[in-house]
Design brief:
The complex is a heterodimer of chains A (about 290) and B (about 325). Chain A is α/β, with parallel strands linked by helices. Chain A has eleven helices and ten strands. The longest helix of chain A has 18 residues. Chain B has a six-stranded mixed β-sheet with strand order 6-7-8-3-9-10, sandwiched between helices. Classes of the chains: A alpha/beta (about 290), B alpha/beta (about 325).
């Protein structure tokens, strides 16, 4: 699957972000008030069924973009057009029903899920919140069925759905977090460093799982990461952030092999040099 | 270089069993054998839950009360497991010290970091105030701070993650230990900082001849740092070899699969979107371990014998012990 493998089907825009800005104020009472432009006039677009990776060093504003797109933060200015609706302008009531269409997976799944919950409760929660208007989520049986299906989809046996979250390993927790995000069949999944901090083999498993799910359900991903090697395997295009701005956007192969902006060059070089010892030593491996 | 030196630290058949009151006993480590030469950097490569951190804490006797230790740990002809708490305290921090996994939670948030480094020195060398302050300044410079004065009187929250990592390294190196144990020293850092910390550890080894046991799940960290690597899986060491040998000719199927994943994640211009090599399945639950090889259920080369019996050590090449029936004569 590469960028242009979508064949004859027209590629449609799912999300279009225009001139998005978000400032935070630090300090106040005792210290001097400092305003930080966390996100400064950011534009980007994600096509249906594709993955856009947002990369950059820590503090470059990636997570703020993610939090604005999911409306965990309200942007100061700009538009976030999701299939014709500007979600930056939605009020609290409209947001509730809207949230089912964009879901987010966080870095540390173990802390993102209430530790008092069983797997079933964790998966049921979004269904209960959204179920007020829906029909299929209304009774217990159907919620349990949906939970079981989602667990199977992410490769966890539904037999364990009554077990506490604490009984699942780190990789399994991340799978459950993914299952929960998928519970409402969202169109866009925002993955905020969702593969960071996992073991190598677990990371590979989850990366493959995300690719499979994307293919099966036509999901669209906004992937936030600082791992260029991972991004190269998972994204159709890459947007590079530095100091709150997007400094370079392009198809993945182009960004990786021919970076133009200094920030991109730096990221690619850092990824290459951190693996240089490894690639030298494993060169004998087929 | 190693053949002329004598092993100064030796783990003999170490096993650790946790028996928490609320749960079934967990066999976290089993049959661990490992010798360390002076000034050597030895890497422990393994995934979360394989017992790496239990090993680090066992070597420093920092395990909870309910943990039962078997076997022996010899350090300069003394069995560390048989020392009294009091005499072990003279070794911990002085001869063997730990760089903890999470510096943010290892440091006391309400004490200035300078005093926290000084505390280590004071515990082992009763010195006058001015003298130990100078020593702390030296240590701060050694771990890469250009303006140690500012750092000395900073609180942990005022420092970045990379800076805090350097502080705990300064603490661990304060008494010039002969063995440093670094538990995932780079796991929470971004690639640029990772490289700096790896360089710092190499520098400490070079300058002071400190042996370092580096625990990591990331082969890229160990590739540039370790002389030898021991690969752990589900509480056992499955393979030991020089760094070059482990990376270029892994013997155990687990190591082989891990290296395939690692090389596939090396960034190249020719990368395209698509599935990556992976190891399917999960590690066995440590509270009900199989009798046979622990990797058997995920292994692509499994044989009948693998599920029946644990593969004891085979030595297909000199200094390359490996626990896999593939190498049975």
């Amino acid at each position: 699957m590469s960028t242009n493998s979508n064949g004859g089907a027209a590629i449609q825009s799912l999300l279009r972000v225009k001139r998005l800005s978000k400032k935070y104020a630090r300090g106040g009472l005792w210290q001097k008030r400092v305003v930080i432009n966390a996100v400064d006039n950011v534009d980007f677009e994600i096509m249906t069924g594709q993955t856009l990776a947002l990369v950059g060093e820590s503090g470059s504003g990636k997570s703020t973009v993610a939090r604005c797109v999911t409306r965990l933060e309200t942007p100061d200015s700009g538009e976030i057009v999701f299939q014709g609706t500007d979600i930056a302008k939605l009020d609290a009531r409209e947001l509730i029903s809207f949230r089912s269409r964009i879901q987010m997976v966080f870095q540390d799944a173990a802390t993102a899920i209430n530790p008092h919950f069983s797997a079933l409760q964790a998966l049921e929660e979004p269904l209960l919140i959204q179920g007020k208007t829906g029909e299929e989520h209304e009774n217990r049986e159907s919620r349990r069925d949906i939970a079981a299906t989602r667990m199977t989809e992410v490769g966890i046996s539904p037999d364990g759905m009554q077990r506490s979250i604490l009984h699942f390993s780190g990789g399994q927790c991340q799978r459950l977090a993914l299952a929960r995000a998928l519970a409402l069949r969202p169109e866009l999944l925002v993955l905020d460093e969702a593969l960071t901090g996992l073991d190598l083999s677990t990371q590979a498993q989850i990366a493959n799982l995300l690719l499979d799910l994307q293919e099966a359900h036509g999901l669209t991903y906004l992937l936030i990461s600082h791992d260029m090697a991972l991004v190269a395997r998972m994204a159709d295009s890459i947007a590079v952030m530095s100091g709150g701005c997007i400094v370079e956007v392009g198809p993945t192969p182009q960004i990786i092999s021919d970076p133009t902006h200094a920030a991109t060059k730096h990221l690619v070089a850092a990824a290459k040099s951190s693996a240089s010892n490894l690639s030298a030593m494993t060169s004998a491996l087929a | 270089m190693q053949s002329s030196k004598q092993i100064f630290f030796e783990i003999r058949n170490l096993a650790v069993t946790y028996s928490p009151e609320s749960d079934r006993p967990i066999r976290a480590l089993d049959g661990i054998k490992l010798g360390i030469y002076p000034g050597e950097v030895i890497g422990i490569l393994g995934e979360s839950g394989c017992g790496k951190s239990t090993l680090a804490n066992a070597l420093l006797r920092l395990l909870p009360q309910h943990a039962k230790l078997e076997g022996a740990i010899f350090f300069r002809d003394r069995d560390l497991l048989r020392l009294t708490d009091k005499s072990f305290r003279e070794i911990r921090g002085r001869e063997i010290s730990l760089i903890p996994q999470d510096p943010a939670s290892a440091l006391n948030p309400v004490i200035k970091v300078g005093s926290q480094i000084r505390e280590v020195l004071r515990a082992h060398f009763p010195t006058k105030g001015e003298q130990s302050r100078d020593r702390v300044m030296d240590l701060l410079r050694e771990v890469g701070f250009v303006k140690p004065d500012n750092i000395y009187s900073a609180y942990p929250h005022q420092l970045s993650g990379g800076q805090r990592q350097r502080i705990v390294i300064a603490q661990a190196a304060a008494c010039r230990p002969t063995l440093l144990i670094a538990d995932e020293p780079t796991s929470k850092l971004d690639p640029a900082l990772k490289a700096e910390i790896v360089a710092l550890l190499s520098q400490i080894r070079k300058q002071h001849g400190t042996a370092i046991l580096v625990i990591s799940h990331d082969p890229t960290v160990l590739a540039g740092l370790a002389d030898r690597i021991a690969v752990m899986y589900a509480g056992r060491i499955v393979e030991v070899g020089t760094s070059a040998a482990i990376f270029s000719r892994p013997l155990h199927p687990y190591t082989e699969a891990l290296m395939r994943i690692a090389t596939s994640s090396v960034i190249t211009g020719a990368m395209v979107k698509g599935r990556v090599p992976s190891i399917e399945g999960e590690s066995p639950n440590p509270s009900c371990l199989p009798v046979g090889c622990r990797f058997e259920s995920r292994c692509s080369e499994r044989m009948d014998i693998c599920s029946r019996q644990y593969p004891l050590e085979f030595m297909p090449e000199p200094s390359r012990p490996v626990n896999c029936f593939k190498y049975e004569e």
